[in-house]
TrEMBL record:
Keyword check for Heme: yes
Single Gene Ontology MF annotation: electron transfer activity
GO CC, one annotated term: periplasmic space
The species this protein was found in: Geopseudomonas sagittaria
Protein name: Cytochrome c556
Pfam families, A to Z: Cytochrom_C_2 (PF01322)
Length: 148
């Protein structure tokens, strides 16, 4: 009897934990995956500039290119209507022009970072401002459109 109850409890727990998952093929799941990749890449670049990671010119330049490519992808995964599980504010859909402007600002800042990282030899001090612009572009959009 106890084993049966424990099994039933475990199955209920597994069922409930599966309910909160986001379909990775849904627009929300695709956006989340892209934003996570962007965050990881950006953290590596910032980590190299701030001394948390050793500075590697090749890895930094490759990371800048990757971040630039990623920065152009999530926007296509915002559907016309807000999803229930989204952590985006309703304003994403209500203020689409502003949202698009901030997306373009991010793309411009990552493109500038790629250009700066093409100037060899790379100097961490020269890359600090372009990385800062990327981080500020991310933050600006989050402050206006993301629910925390």
């Amino acid at each position: 009897m106890i084993a049966r109850n424990l099994l039933l409890l475990a199955l209920c727990g597994l069922t409930l934990s599966a309910c909160d998952r986001v379909d990775p093929n849904s627009p929300l799941g695709q956006r989340q995956a892209l934003f996570k990749q962007m965050l990881n890449t950006s953290e590596d670049l910032g980590g190299m500039l701030r001394g948390r990671l050793s500075f590697d010119e090749k890895r930094f330049a490759e990371g800048a290119v990757k971040l630039d490519q990623l920065s152009r992808q999530p926007w296509q995964h915002f559907p016309q209507v807000r999803e229930e599980n989204s952590s985006a504010r309703d304003e994403v859909w209500q203020r689409q022009e502003r949202f698009d402007q901030l997306a373009r600002d991010l793309e411009a800042s990552t493109a500038a970072l790629v250009a700066a990282s093409a100037q060899t030899p790379l100097k961490a001090k020269a890359l600090a401002a372009p990385v800062d612009r990327v981080e500020k572009a991310c933050k600006a959009c989050h402050e206006e459109f993301r629910v925390y």
